[in-house]
Amino acid sequence: MASETLILHSDLNCYYASVEMNEHPELRGKKIAVCGSTENRHGIVLTASYPAKRCGVRTGMANWQARQMCPDLIMVEPHYDLYLRYSRIVRSIYHRYADCIEPFGMDECWISIPCCPDLETDGRRLAEEIRRTVREETGLTVSIGVSFTKILAKLGSDMKKPDAVTVVSRENYRDTAWKLPVSDLLYVGPATRRRLQVLNIHTIGDLAKADPALLRVKLGRNGILLWHFANGTDGAPVMPQEYEFPVKSIGHGVTCVRDLETDDEVWLVLLELAQDVGHRLRVHELTAGAVQVSVRDRELGWYQWQAPLPYPSQSPLEITQAGYALFLEHYAWDRPVRALTIRGIHPGSARAPVQTDLFHDEERRDRRRRLDDTVDALRGRFGERIVIPACLTHGVPVAQDRCETVPMPSPMFR
C-alpha cells in the first residue's frame, strides 16, 4: 500500500474551562463558564464546561443569558497568560511526534506526519498515543481528527468529544462526512449557510455534488474552495508554525466599555486603535494605501466604509484622520456607537518610492515619521503606555484588559 501524508487536527476540549479546573481542582465536575468582563463590554461566555453545556450554556452567549440557562453557574474570569503557557506545553508534546505543526488558535493545531503507511491503523494508533500523553502530562483532554486533508481532519476532531479519536479516511469520508449539515464544514458561517440553502445545499454531500461553476457565480473563489473541501480535494498543506502568511490588512477593533454618543469620543477611540495599527505596519515594514472603518451601533447594526489615503502611510495620526473623515461623512448618529474597528488596507512596502506632487510637504511628513519611529522605540523598551497622545491619557472608553490581543486562528483562504 502506498504511503501518504497523514494530517491530524487536535482540539483541546473546553480549553479555558479545562485549564481553570486543572488549576483549581475544586471546580472539577461543576458547571463553570469562563466569561469576559461585563464591565468592559466583553460580557460573553468564552468557554463552558460540559456540565454547563448540558444546561444550555454556549460559547458566545451573553453572561446574563448563561445565568438564566444555569442559575448555579460558576463564572470565572479569563487568565490568558495561563492559557498561553498551557498551549506552549501541549505544542511541545506535539513536536515529539512531528516537525510540521500549524496552530489554529491557542487550543487547536494541525499536525502533519509524512509517509504514513496506513491512515486507519497507523494514524489511529499515533493519535491515541498523543491523546494519552496530553492527558497524562497536562491533565487536559484532547479530541483528534485523523484524515488526508486539513478540513476533514478538523471535521473529525469535532465529531467526538471529549477525549476521543475519529478517523476520516478516503474510504469512509463520504459515509462519514457527507451526511452532516453543511454548517459543520469549516468556514461555512451563518451567512454562507443561508446562501447555500437558497441553492438547496443543506449537507456537505449536497455541496460536494453541486456544480462548481454555479458555486463560483454565487460565492466567488470561496465557493470553489468549499467545493474542494467537501470533496476532500483541496490539498492545502500544513504550514509550519514559523510560516508568515502574507499580510493583506492590519486592523484593530474594540467593543467600547460604554456606548459612544459624540464625534469627539469616536475620534479618541479611533486614535487609540490606530496606535496599534501604526505599530504593526512598522513591524511588518508596510504602509497602508487606504483606510477602512467599521462601526457597530447599539442595536448591532453594522456599517463599513473605506477610502484611499493621499499617500501610503504608517502614521497613526494620518490613519486616524482618514478614518474619522469617513465616519463623519457616512454615520448619521441614528444610534449610539457600540464598537469600532479601523484598518490599514492595500498594503505596500515601506521602502517603495512614493510619487508626490508640487504641493506635498515631504519634510513635514518625514519629521512625523521620525517622531513615530522614536515613540515606537520607546514603547518597545518601556511599555506601550510610556508615550501616548495627551488626549488619550484619560477618559478613553476602551478597556485596558487587552483580551483582544490574544492570538487568533491562522487564515486558511490564501
Describe this structure in words.
With 414 residues, the chain is α+β, with helices and mostly antiparallel strands. It has 14 helices and twelve strands. It has helices at residues 15-23, 50-54, 63-69, 80-94, 119-138, 150-159, 173-177, 190-198, 204-209, 212-219, 221-231, 263-283, 316-330, 362-382; strands at 4-12, 32-35, 45-48, 74-76, 100-103, 108-116, 142-147, 165-168, 249-260, 286-297, 302-313, 337-349. The strands form three sheets. A five-stranded mixed beta sheet has the order 5-6-1-7-8. Helix 6 links the parallel strand 7 and strand 8 (165-168). The chain is globular, with a radius of gyration of 24 Å. Mean pLDDT is 88; it is low at 403-414.
Draw up the topology in text:
Blueprint: E1 4-12, H1 15-23, E2 32-35, E3 45-48, H2 50-54, H3 63-69, E4 74-76, H4 80-94, E5 100-103, E6 108-116, H5 119-138, E7 142-147, H6 150-159, E8 165-168, H7 173-177, H8 190-198, H9 204-209, H10 212-219, H11 221-231, E9 249-260, H12 263-283, E10 286-297, E11 302-313, H13 316-330, E12 337-349, H14 362-382
Parallel strand pairs: 2-4, 7-8
Antiparallel strand pairs: 1-6, 1-7, 2-3, 5-6, 9-12, 10-11, 10-12
Keywords:
5-stranded mixed sheet, alpha+beta, 414 residues, 39% helix, 4-stranded antiparallel sheet, 12 strands, disordered C terminus, globular, single chain
Shape: globular
Enumerate the strands of the largest sheet in spatial order, edge to edge or round the barrel.
Answer: 5-6-1-7-8
Mean pLDDT: 88
Tell me the radius of gyration: 24 Å
Which structural class do you get from the secondary structure elements?
alpha+beta
Largest sheet: 5 strands, mixed
The percent of residues in helical segments reads: 25-40%
The number of strands is 12
State the separation between the terminal residues, measured CA to CA: 32 Å
| Low-confidence residue ranges | 403-414
Total helical segments:
14
> What fraction of the residues are assigned to beta strands by DSSP?
15-25%
SSE string, helices as H and strands as E: EHEEHHEHEEHEHEHHHHHEHEEHEH
